């Protein structure tokens, strides 16, 4: 039997990192089993779906390495409406489902309590289909439903506690529970690997598989992803969109490595592991069922490591979208004609060791490409204390007199200027750095001055000096 797995996102928003994690797990499982990965877009919630969300899912999957053309699909749930309705009809014809015209209020009035599930009132009323009548599945009164779950063992549910749930609404449209099962059947899915949030649906869905006469799939409910407060990651509160991480400058390699560690770890004491090793070592059965903490700080640290591991030419190329502002990435503060690729290449190795996400390249190098540096006023106030004017005067004069404008000469010159004033190099650097780059932190100062060039550096130092008058 060929293993067939599917990833079945609903295109109702940005692509959630938890979804990306499930997609990768499905992807690897299929690969390990010599199976097939199917992508199904569950687009039946017409009010909330948008085509751009579907496009977003496809491109985000591409980005993390699940590339268009390398999987089966995408199929669209909305194209299978006929199959969904036919399955509902079959269940009705076989007596496994019945029509019901009760409202929630009716049930509440009868049971005299909060709505706690349907009371079975219409079970034997023999209602025919009609407007406003929902179709309910007749759950067995006895026995148990045992879910075979590769991660959670065999969660067991007592059938009498499962209410007669709705499978088609009063307007005849099938609900998610049924559509999802019918699609999995139609697509020959053998393993359903999905988020834990769906576990409460699973006994109901397994009953539907049984009632429709098809052997249910093997399930694997992967752990819910939580924030540092142990709350489920939510798109209203947390940064959850894979696209947001991409646009901020996380590398796909770092991201997918990190996502795979949510609930699983490779052998040895390693966390940063080449993708082929993850593909080989990952075991779905080893995934820890407890909630997985999405630790953005750790992801950042991972990303920094991945950035540092790039060959410098690749680092330069990878920074390009942030330097020119392409696609969904915010444009930099300079004009395209101000950008100087050679100057960037000269400082790139210095920047590569200092940034954790690629967007951070912009504030590190903007001083090279802007006519005037963007002055951070707080940094200015901090650096331009008493003595700054005198130090700048001396530095300007000494730099101006330099024969060779190179980092080493600049450094020894400023060292001497500082020493004459009883200042250590660090202190002497601060006013110069703010004058030239606008900031108190950044790339090594003397290399920055060298790349900026004598004329521009001196112009900025003189402008700062005038501001201090
Ligand atoms: N469309 C469902 C969701 O996005 C997926 C359900 C499933 O994987 O079975 O949550």
TrEMBL record:
Keywords: Aminoacyl-tRNA synthetase, ATP-binding, Cytoplasm, Ligase, Metal-binding, Nucleotide-binding, Protein biosynthesis, Zinc. Pfam families: Anticodon_2 (PF19269), tRNA-synt_1c (PF00749). Gene3D superfamilies: 1.10.10.350, Glutamate-tRNA synthetase, class I, anticodon-binding domain 1 (1.10.8.70), HUPs (3.40.50.620). A motif ('KMSKS' region) lies at residues 232-236. SUPFAM superfamilies: An anticodon-binding domain of class I aminoacyl-tRNA synthetases (SSF48163), Nucleotidylyl transferase (SSF52374). One of its GO terms (molecular function) is zinc ion binding. Residues 3-300 form the Glutamyl/glutaminyl-tRNA synthetase class Ib catalytic domain. Its main location: cytoplasm. GO terms for cellular component: cytosol. This is Glutamate--tRNA ligase. It comes from Micromonospora kangleipakensis.
